[in-house]
Amino acid sequence: MTAQALPAQLAAIRDDFLALEERDRLMLLLEFSNELPELPERYRDHTDLFERVEECQTPVYIFIEVEEDRSVHIFATAPRESPTTRGFVSIIAQGLDGLSVEEALDVPDDFPDSIGLRRAVSPLRLRGMSAMLARTKRQLRERAPQ
């Protein structure tokens, strides 16, 4: 999949970041941290279903749901006290939610590098976002009906 073939919502996110000066990209990431969707009621008491993203120093948990029509729903938690990490998980959640399993699996593994944050955040944080995407794809492979 080429950068131009990204699903529309991920392409829009990438383009929003790349349209900004480097110094302003971190502010957009912080805006995303405030937009991480709350967990639906049915999962608030079942966080045991969520998988910890061990590569992140901050406790990030994700859970993937695949509908019968193969559409993807991503649920995630990250502490408000870690806005950079929370912003990354929000990008993954918003960018992949509603896609088909195939579209989500086709997202390039290097998507986190494509949004222009290499100089704004540490390599460790970028690896954490890559790990979030990798774990999301692994859960999709496990949960998607063949």
TrEMBL record:
One matching Pfam family is: SufE
Which residues belong to any copy of the Fe-S metabolism associated domain?
A: 16-138
Q: Which family does it belong to?
A: Belongs to the SufE family.
Q: What is this protein called?
A: SufE family protein
Taxonomic lineage per UniProt? Bacteria, Bacillati, Actinomycetota, Actinomycetes, Micrococcales
